[in-house]
Design goal:
Distance between the termini: 32 Å
Low-confidence stretches: none
Shape: elongated
Structural class: mainly alpha
Strand order of the largest sheet: 1-2
Length: 146
């Protein structure tokens, strides 16, 4: 998990660094390899690069095109999670889901700065606002159902 903490940018940022191949309309293999190496410290195989290119290409339209930008970020995140065994949602489950894969699956959260040590271990996401308020010196009262 320590190596995963070294990934200092979001999957969406990583996906924005990929370069398009003007001939195919898909990302170049070279940019995929370079971007994952630089930002996620992952050396992708040729097979993984080919699979990524297939996963981000939408064949459901007659002319074919890249999938939506946020979905490309999901694909990048899936590769990072798989490589670092972060346990986030499998791409097949996400693909079959109408919500993009929202489940009860645990999600890693990384923090830096004042109070970062409080975000350690397994936490319920509903505790985050309370913890942030406490760190910031505010009183926090949950409105509605507790």
């Amino acid at each position: 998990m320590e190596a995963l903490k070294e990934v200092g940018v979001s999957p969406e940022y990583i996906s924005q660094q990929l370069e398009l191949d003007e001939d195919t309309g898909n990302f170049t293999a070279e940019s995929i390899r370079d971007v994952f190496a630089e930002f996620a410290n992952i050396d992708l195989t040729d097979e993984e690069i080919s699979q990524f290119q297939e996963n981000v290409w939408d064949n459901n339209v007659p002319e074919g095109r890249l999938i939506l930008a946020h979905e490309i970020g999901w694909e990048v995140g899936s590769i990072i999670a798989h490589h670092y065994r972060a346990g986030v949602i499998d791409r097949q489950i996400r693909e079959e889901s109408a919500t993009g894969g929202h489940t009860g699956e645990m999600v890693p959260v990384f923090t830096v700065g004042v109070g970062a040590e409080k975000f350690n271990g397994v936490l319920d996401n509903t505790e985050f606002p309370r913890m942030i308020a406490e760190i910031s010196g505010f009183e926090f009262e949950l409105q509605g159902n507790e």
